[in-house]
Amino acid sequence: MRLYAALTALLATALGVGVLFFANSALSPVLIGGPGSTCPEPDCGLGAGLWLIAGAVAVVLVAFLAGFLRHVERPVRRGLWIALWCTVIYLLESIVVWVLI
Fold it and tell me: What local confidence, expressed as pLDDT, does residue 34 receive?
Protein backbone atom coordinates (compact mmCIF):
# COMPACT_ATOMS: atom_id res chain seq x y z
CA MET A 1 0.00 0.00 0.00
CA ARG A 2 2.84 2.40 0.71
CA LEU A 3 4.18 1.81 -2.77
CA TYR A 4 0.87 2.95 -4.29
CA ALA A 5 0.95 6.16 -2.28
CA ALA A 6 4.58 6.78 -3.22
CA LEU A 7 4.04 6.14 -6.93
CA THR A 8 0.91 8.27 -7.00
CA ALA A 9 2.76 11.10 -5.26
CA LEU A 10 5.71 10.73 -7.63
CA LEU A 11 3.67 10.77 -10.84
CA ALA A 12 1.24 13.50 -9.80
CA THR A 13 4.03 15.74 -8.50
CA ALA A 14 6.08 15.20 -11.65
CA LEU A 15 3.06 16.19 -13.73
CA GLY A 16 2.30 19.31 -11.66
CA VAL A 17 5.93 20.40 -11.49
CA GLY A 18 6.36 19.79 -15.20
CA VAL A 19 3.42 22.03 -16.03
CA LEU A 20 4.73 24.76 -13.73
CA PHE A 21 8.26 24.43 -15.12
CA PHE A 22 7.12 24.86 -18.72
CA ALA A 23 4.92 27.79 -17.68
CA ASN A 24 7.99 29.38 -16.09
CA SER A 25 9.96 28.70 -19.27
CA ALA A 26 7.31 30.38 -21.38
CA LEU A 27 7.13 33.40 -19.07
CA SER A 28 10.87 33.81 -18.56
CA PRO A 29 11.40 36.44 -21.32
CA VAL A 30 8.75 38.62 -19.70
CA LEU A 31 9.97 37.98 -16.16
CA ILE A 32 13.66 38.62 -16.89
CA GLY A 33 13.35 41.92 -18.70
CA GLY A 34 10.18 43.15 -17.07
CA PRO A 35 9.80 46.40 -15.16
CA GLY A 36 11.73 46.50 -11.92
CA SER A 37 14.05 43.72 -12.99
CA THR A 38 17.36 43.83 -11.16
CA CYS A 39 19.11 41.63 -13.70
CA PRO A 40 17.94 41.85 -17.32
CA GLU A 41 20.85 39.70 -18.51
CA PRO A 42 20.37 36.25 -20.07
CA ASP A 43 22.63 34.89 -17.32
CA CYS A 44 19.87 35.58 -14.82
CA GLY A 45 17.51 33.41 -16.82
CA LEU A 46 20.07 30.63 -16.77
CA GLY A 47 20.47 30.98 -13.00
CA ALA A 48 16.72 30.93 -12.45
CA GLY A 49 16.41 27.92 -14.74
CA LEU A 50 19.03 26.00 -12.79
CA TRP A 51 17.31 26.77 -9.50
CA LEU A 52 13.96 25.71 -10.91
CA ILE A 53 15.38 22.45 -12.29
CA ALA A 54 17.07 21.65 -8.97
CA GLY A 55 13.88 22.48 -7.09
CA ALA A 56 11.80 20.31 -9.40
CA VAL A 57 14.05 17.30 -8.89
CA ALA A 58 14.14 17.84 -5.12
CA VAL A 59 10.37 18.21 -4.81
CA VAL A 60 9.66 15.08 -6.85
CA LEU A 61 12.09 13.06 -4.72
CA VAL A 62 10.57 14.42 -1.51
CA ALA A 63 7.10 13.50 -2.74
CA PHE A 64 8.23 9.97 -3.54
CA LEU A 65 9.85 9.52 -0.14
CA ALA A 66 6.89 11.06 1.69
CA GLY A 67 4.65 8.39 0.17
CA PHE A 68 6.50 5.75 2.18
CA LEU A 69 6.19 7.48 5.57
CA ARG A 70 2.87 6.11 6.80
CA HIS A 71 0.62 3.17 6.14
CA VAL A 72 -2.79 4.49 5.10
CA GLU A 73 -6.11 3.01 4.11
CA ARG A 74 -6.43 5.13 0.96
CA PRO A 75 -3.00 5.26 -0.67
CA VAL A 76 -4.06 7.06 -3.85
CA ARG A 77 -5.75 9.82 -1.89
CA ARG A 78 -2.68 10.15 0.33
CA GLY A 79 -0.42 10.29 -2.73
CA LEU A 80 -2.52 13.01 -4.32
CA TRP A 81 -2.49 15.00 -1.08
CA ILE A 82 1.31 14.78 -0.95
CA ALA A 83 1.52 15.80 -4.62
CA LEU A 84 -0.69 18.82 -4.02
CA TRP A 85 1.50 20.14 -1.22
CA CYS A 86 4.75 19.43 -3.06
CA THR A 87 3.45 21.23 -6.14
CA VAL A 88 2.44 24.21 -3.99
CA ILE A 89 5.95 24.24 -2.51
CA TYR A 90 7.43 24.28 -6.01
CA LEU A 91 5.10 27.13 -7.00
CA LEU A 92 6.28 29.13 -3.98
CA GLU A 93 9.89 28.38 -4.87
CA SER A 94 9.38 29.63 -8.42
CA ILE A 95 7.79 32.84 -7.13
CA VAL A 96 10.70 33.41 -4.76
CA VAL A 97 13.27 32.73 -7.51
CA TRP A 98 11.65 35.20 -9.91
CA VAL A 99 11.25 37.85 -7.20
CA LEU A 100 14.89 37.57 -6.22
CA ILE A 101 16.07 37.82 -9.84
Answer: 60
Q: Which pLDDT does position 36 carry in this prediction?
A: 60
Distance CA(9)–CA(80), nearest Å, equals: 6
What count of other Cβ atoms lies within 10 Å of the Cβ of residue 87? Answer: 21
Q: Where are the domains of the chain?
A: 1-100
The answer for residues whose C-beta is within 8 angstroms of residue 16's C-beta and 6 or more apart is: 83, 84, 86, 87, 90
Q: Which residues contact 44 (CB under 8 A, 6 or more apart)?
A: 32, 37, 101
